[in-house]
Amino acid sequence: MQAEIITIGDEILIGQIVDTNSAFISKALNKIGVSVYQITSVQDDKAHILEALKNANSRSQLVLLTGGLGPTKDDITKHTLCEYFGDSLIENKGVLEHIEFLFKKYLTTPISDMNRLQALVPSRAEVLHNAYGTAPGIWMENEGTVFVSMPGVPFEMKGLMENEVIPKVRGQFKRPHILHKTLMTYGMGESAIAEKIADWENELPKTIKLAYLPSLGRVRLRLSTTGTDKEALTAAIDAEVKKLYPLIGDIIYGEEEDQSIEASVAKLLTDKKYTLSTAESFTGGKISSSLTALPGASKYFKGTLVSYATATKIETLGVPEALVSQCSVVSAEVACAMATNVKELLHTDFAIATTGNAGPEKGDSQAPIGTVFIAIATPKGTFAQQFTMGNHRERIVQKSVNKAFELLQKEIINF
Amino acid sequence: MQAEIITIGDEILIGQIVDTNSAFISKALNKIGVSVYQITSVQDDKAHILEALKNANSRSQLVLLTGGLGPTKDDITKHTLCEYFGDSLIENKGVLEHIEFLFKKYLTTPISDMNRLQALVPSRAEVLHNAYGTAPGIWMENEGTVFVSMPGVPFEMKGLMENEVIPKVRGQFKRPHILHKTLMTYGMGESAIAEKIADWENELPKTIKLAYLPSLGRVRLRLSTTGTDKEALTAAIDAEVKKLYPLIGDIIYGEEEDQSIEASVAKLLTDKKYTLSTAESFTGGKISSSLTALPGASKYFKGTLVSYATATKIETLGVPEALVSQCSVVSAEVACAMATNVKELLHTDFAIATTGNAGPEKGDSQAPIGTVFIAIATPKGTFAQQFTMGNHRERIVQKSVNKAFELLQKEIINF
Fold it and tell me: Is the ipTM of this complex over 0.90?
């Protein structure tokens, strides 16, 4: 059982947008045992789409398309599907009623003929209800291969996948189990890990695949296997994971697939009923907004002081001016004062503070670009650590945000 | 002149990572007149990669590959290229020296045999210097088609593209001009715009392509054209854009490709020498971190108070407790107090404040999920507006951040 994804739109091929739909669809399919063989992004061009449909048809039993379903002239997927299937468009009453309902309920502009055109679907298609938009999903079959067309707007596509496509795929296709386990490690490079676990890796059963996924100071090790007996698969993977711990247990910080470090910090704080505040300089509120992006943040998160200007650190956060002039604004001392003060100011159990230079120019300190201090205040006291994070602004910020969560996580666990 | 991109890695096809490399490469190629015909993502599988190479070879003169160049066992691109070209790997002295240099300068772990393996390149390949990592870029030619292989780590790939690949492509290929112009609009849906400009669209010259790109309350209209005479192309596009303004000039807020609204606000503030602070509740520091992500933010940005908890709004931001209990914490009054107070506290010319309910559960107010108030404080006074932003947490936050910038932009322009 194998699937393919075709994403349609010039905007992808000129790099105007990043195709995030494919990753979402792949993950959702993978979870139910459908392996994605290939993702193909093609232009808004009928001949090209037809070619992609033909190729996918010859290889896979399920082909998912996104994009090109809007009401405007550049959206041609529906017409191309009709050509591919030798079909023609007819008006679907249910879709038309839904379009009229959406316009009545949510939109101030009157419904137009162009909006009504979205109720046209291929006559042999099964319509999939798009709760969040006017373009319906379309499900068509050709010689044992199913074609599903969805709008390219991520929000609408996600709704269609969850509510319509996944349940139908589950019902219609026989699928094996696909099992992944990802170990998240930090503090050691890809090759160094590979050497430490070389013997283990050489003796891995052929049915288990290992991948190294490095990113920003972390390496994720992913074990994958496929088969029919879910329990046997789980046991096989667990047995291998168990053997890994004596080798690299010291650098493994988590096991859950998809668990970001902020999610694991959020869970710890919520479970242990601790509260948190942050005082951020060059990270600009990124630590704070990473946490509040997750539901339930109000349970533990009180607030943040982004003291971007030195004056703000002094006046609002109460960092002594003498400390700044004596130690420099990018220093362990200032980081500690920021963490201690924001913790007091917002009455929290823990606090994170950051100060550093993310470049591209030097600011109010002579610290080289990439120099970063992260302070953690706990109920027991405050400490700061210095890091050198390279010379790329975006990476300096993101690596520091990750590092701050890592430091905090250790403190909470050991508290 | 046409290119293709092949991204290699199981992590893409199981949805573990989003392929951002393709958009970066597409944009960079597009800028120098190279059109990307197709993007193909394939698994870490030799037969599959070989098939993708063959197909791309038959269609395009330039094929760019990313991924599968790491030192570990799952990285197979180099071996597959050798098989495709009937070549074999040899050690490259320059690459080996660079690997040794990187380990000496930046890494604490000793260099290993596995690291040294990265100096192996196909004997007929031209090596492209990877300043940021140990895996070199590879440039190979086959019957008039150039194959370029780059590591999948975005940071390293970007360096290779900018410093090596783009200059070489410029030198080696004859390219037409590709011209895009994007008009950014807000406040009107895709179909409504399409109807307003239907006559204009019907009379567009065949050489100019129009695309509608909707996202979060905005629609971007992109005009594209290709040819040899850059001046004539520019004139043709400009003439069409000029005709658009009488039709929808009231909803166009910018013309520059790629200019995010925060970048345009940042430019306005810097140019006019105004300063800004923010007081954020449910946006959690996202307005702040969007601005500080851009270089030069210290010129105008003073700081932020993320008052996530109601107590923080009262104690730290000085919002009167009576106001909160009288009007609710999600209200125009509280938003205005937050904006006015943070502006005073941090001594800035302008300030943004947000308060609202992003869900999934209701917080300290009875306001329905999606209810949002955004306040703007200017040197002349403060006002707030109410919005309903749907019921999807991530979208509520992002739409509100966009809306806040939009409101601020108008105020600065009209001040």
Answer: no
